[in-house]
Amino acid sequence: MMPASGYALAPAGPQAARLAHVFWVFFAVALVVYLVVVALLLLGVLRPGAAAVDEPARLRLVAVGGVLTAFTLIGLLVVSVRGGHELNPMRGAKDVLTVQVIGRQWWWELHYPGTAPDQEVVTANELHVPVGRPVLLQLVSRDVIHSFWVPELHGKRDLIPGHDSTTYIQADRPGVFRGQCAEFCGTQHAQMGFLVIAEPEDSFQRWLAVQRRPAPPQQELGAQARRGQQLFQRGTCVMCHRVAGTQAGATMGPDLTHVASRTTLAAGSLPNVREHLRRWVADAQSVKPGSHMPPTPLSATDQDDLVTYLEALR
Amino acid sequence: MNEALAATWSPGRGLSAWLREVRHTEIGKRFVVTAFLFFAAGGIEALLMRLQLSRPASGTVGPDLYNRLFTTHGSTMMFLFAVPVMQGVGTFTVPLMLGARNLAFPRLSAYSYYVYVVGGLLLYAGFSLRAGPDAGWFAYTPLSGPAFSPGKRMDVWAQMITFTELSALATAVNLIVTIFKLRAPGMSITRMPLLVWAFLVVAFMIVFAMPAVVVASSCLALDRLVGTHFFNHAEGGDHLLWQHMFWFFAHPEVYIIFLPGLGMISAILPAFTRRRVLGYDVVVLATVTTGFVAFGVWVHHMFAAGLPQLGDSYFTASSLIITIPTGLQIFCWLATLWRAPLRFATPLLFVLGFFVTFVVGGLTGVMLAAVPLDLQVHDTMFVVAHLHYVLIGGAVFPLLGGVYYWFPKATGRMLNERAGKVSFWLTLIGFNATFFPLHMLGLHGMPRRVYTYLPGSGWHHLNLFSTVCAGVLGLGILITFVNVVASRARGRRAEANPWEADSLEWAVPSPPPPYNFAEIPTVGSRAPLWEEPSSRGVVTGLATDQREVVVTTLLDAAPDHRTILAGPSIWPLFAAAVTGVGFIVSMFTPWGLPMAVALGVPVMVGWFWPKGKPTPLHAEQPGTKAA
Amino acid sequence: MSTPANTPPAPRSLDASGLPSHAFGHRAPLWWGVLLMVAIEATTMALLLVSYLYLRGNEDAWRPLRLSWRILELAVVQMALLVASVGPTMASVRAARAGRLRATRSWLLVATVLGALMLALRCLEIRWLPFRWDTDARGSVFWMTFGLHTAHMVTGVLENGMILALLYAGRVEEKHFGDVEAGALLWYFCVLEWVPALALLYFDPLLWPT
Amino acid sequence: MRRPCLALLAGATVAMTTGTMACKHETHDVRPSSEVSQAGSGVVLSTLFAGGVPSAIAGTLQTSQENAFAMNEGKRLFDAYNCSGCHAHGGGAIGPALMDAKWIYGSAPENVYDTIVEGRPNGMPSFRGKIPDFQVAQLVAYVRSMSGLAGGFWAPGRNDSMQVKPGENTVSTQAPVRAPGAPPP
Predict the structure, then answer these.
(1) CB contact under 8 A, B226 and C173
(2) May I ask the CATH architecture of the domain A218-312?
(3) Chains contacting chain A through 3 or more C-beta pairs under 8 A
(4) pLDDT tens per residue, range B329-342
(5) CB C189 within 8 A of CB C41
(6) To the nearest whole number, what is the mean pLDDT of chain A?
(7) What is the CA radius of gyration of chain D?
(8) I need a surface site. Which of A14, A80, B412, D141 has the fewest CB within 10 A?
(9) CA atoms within 13 A on the CB side of A164
(10) Tell me, what DSSP letter sits at residue A255?
(11) Which CATH architecture has domain A1-212?
(12) Where are the alpha helices (DSSP H) in B228-308?
């Protein structure tokens, strides 16, 4: 099922833990200061006394208040700057996994570089990471400014065209963490989510090996799936999507070579089950109105064939 | 004598007199009324947005309309309500508090109002034609640029910015010169009321901050219309240039909105505590310090953009330091309130509401200043909660208190106290219940500006609760609107000084006559009306057949010379019309600007060419030899 | 509340009829108004020059372009004309303060003609510039700054022209001499702001090779 | 005197916030319906197709000609579907130039629609079944805006890449001329 959204104060990685720590320090100080101010206000307002106003004494109290504020702020500044430094201890770390994250208008394209160009894994919206290993994300934007943010792993980092930037994340426990684009990027900014799937090293390597294989050849497909593949290549799908090992090689839309292995569809908006896959293929605009995926009106049988073919792309 | 003055200073009756109006009391009231109408429009948009967010995946409002709604809500509240309403309060109160008969440049204040109205009408004409802006009130490029915002939507936003900033600049120049040169004799710099100090600092911030957004929006409009490359990284431009230029303006702007609120508190407190605000020098220095430091904190809006860490740490420090002056002012007010014989009228309630609300916003502001914390909560509902706490808590609460405080002076009628108290409590409870849950939503990962969210995201209950309470907040503010409209005609009659306040504007009858002061008063202390009347002097010998006022020196306000202020004139309206036509046509073709200059020259000549009977050249300077 | 010793005691009642009816320099409200407008325009020009430096720092996309000598000489001639017009402007202000009408308007005429001549040369320069505003970011900032300064110049020349028309044809009053000084303030700004802009926009690759 | 003006202002503000009117240039057709998304084929029974614009798309084809959103989408699709592969960015390479005034197969929206869906001799492939109709209408609008025939003020601006040519909104309208050797209309 779809994981609930991440909670910034329930960290699952070293960076988010550091941020949560800084939050609790600031929150504690803020709570104390607020209680003091409200107490002063109530004590002053609810007990009208005719006490003469001795001006200099009150001014000295104001000065004391000012000095206390200044020292508190200096303390908070130290906490903030120290907290900021520990965010990228990964610089010198070894065996760092590098992934290129490309922000597109309203979905995420992920590239796992391989030893050779044909070994490169191209997937979308679901970032598989090995548990315990630092992951260097190279953030690139192809169109407008997006912002990569997984509350449980790290703070957000903007993807600005012309300013390629990097950020480190690391998951200390296996699990599925939901992320969301945090910088307004157009009509469907609201449904531009993604998942970070942290799994042990061996299952991550198994996943990577599966992703490196091209799509199953025609012979291995069932009759219905084979008809679906024909529809895929003769219809509108081939103009935008790529299925490695077939003629479909367009890169405008997400790579569908292993679409069935993904748990969600439409940038984390729909669970990847048959009727949602059918609804998304037949009329994407009903799920994400304004997204760049046009509706594909087909007869019921054609839809079944196409969906069967897509579900064969494990 | 008063009839002669009234005949000289009043513009007459009828529509043409209404359009030629230059009295600061009238123009100030128009600014405030128009701004509150836009506040109502912004409020309606906010309720629509809350309705859409009350349920996950609800179809009430589609994504395109929602994006237009939140952009128009933000732009309306920031540019068409917050700054203009403070301009209005300043235009109305500053001359009265200084003992002046009008602003230094009366026709410029008329021009400022008309240009503001043109900007407001442009934005709402666009919004009603489905051409409202849809890229957020700070319109980051490249989304707001030519490639990703087709049509005229963002051009409407950019030109509206130019109009409202032109209006703010004109009012700022007017206020500064009035405060410097037209103070009542004896009102030295150290005897000026604290609200006037606030408006002086705000006016200087406007002079140095607004050009940044005029340049930024002009560069954006040029990029979209004629294809310049300010924000095209492939041709040498840079998207961060937009963010730097915009936030260099926008952070001072939020202080431009917030400082008059503090000034109003310093004006309201004496009347209800029977004490002068403690630490006059501390409050003045704090206001001036806030004015300067506000220009050095803008990068805290860009911590997530990946700028070098050393720079971010500097801006963390400067963003933390800016809380000290405001903190000192709050401590001074707490000391003033300390065990004072209080009179719990509505204005004081709103000031107390300020303390309870704004301090929460200030503290979340301190949290947002820290880079590691900001990386988690930037661009989320946490920031939405923070900005509403500091803007509604910091500026709208004192403003509502100011409306209840100065309404008798502006209209001669008291606002209903019972309705005021009900409105206060509904507004306070409704506001806190609406916006406090958004802090939790932000920490739970709900980003800003999302038109919907998934059923499984866990944000449903808090959003529903927030929407319901938004209705309560709306009701609270609606009661004040009804109170104002009802009391306008049927409120209790108000005498000159209903609150026994200390500043000069309470020395004139309510509503003030066209000439404000029969004789311009002289001032001997910081609270002129609390001195015994016998010791208050007046200025005599000013002509009553001309709009003559006394100009005083800058520091000590010693009388320096007499001058004639401009009278009612239609040219500000024509100049605003030409500015409007010129800029709106330049949205479609670059020839709009040369056309505006061509139309503008005759209007400027009409505006400046001397009219009426000339005083002969060498009348009173026999000394100079005939040329 | 003790009144600080340094502020003068409040004058009881005061007869204003004896005060002069106009004043010059910082005593006049109009002077402050023009000074604040100059501050606004100066901030605008400063922001444009800062954005030029900001974009210039972006090495990989910045293409320094050496302007031809012909344009640089024309720019220097224009600057010379501007500086030359400062003298007559100051003379007209001195004459205005002394109330000498004929001297004021003749010096102001000289200054305005020099300004108009500089604007004419600027129209020639527009045809010679080798790049347009949509060539690249450098061209965009150049033309925006060029346009802003031209707008200031046109405003200054038009304002001086109107004051001249008033001094020659209109019913001159005392306060119009104050207008001459206010117009001069704007003119001094037009001259002063073009010095950094000229150095940065025209002589950038020459003086500061990147 | 103040009452009518306040009422006027209040009325204007309320009328405007309801967003009742709609300007055809600016509406974002965010949810294209399925019948305009037919890829010009429907159920394929034979390779013979009656020419001309199907009725379902005729309306959208006309409105797209002055709709800013449609033209901007057309510009995005022009690169996404690799039209720029043969036509460059309107200057013409393997395929003919599109930003000049010469039209071989007619410049009316219907002619350009047919060119895209049917294909043309000498290399223009048929995109029937490959591109949904509403996107073809957007491409038609963008192609005609390259030579100023569509959009006018609402034509797309420059794009965020190397400056290849000025934006379509700065192009002056060039009256269409029949290219030499073009077949009779």
Answers:
(1) no
(2) Sandwich (2.60)
(3) B, D
(4) 999 999 999 888 89
(5) yes
(6) 91
(7) 20
(8) B412
(9) 8
(10) B
(11) Sandwich (2.60)
(12) 239-273, 280-293
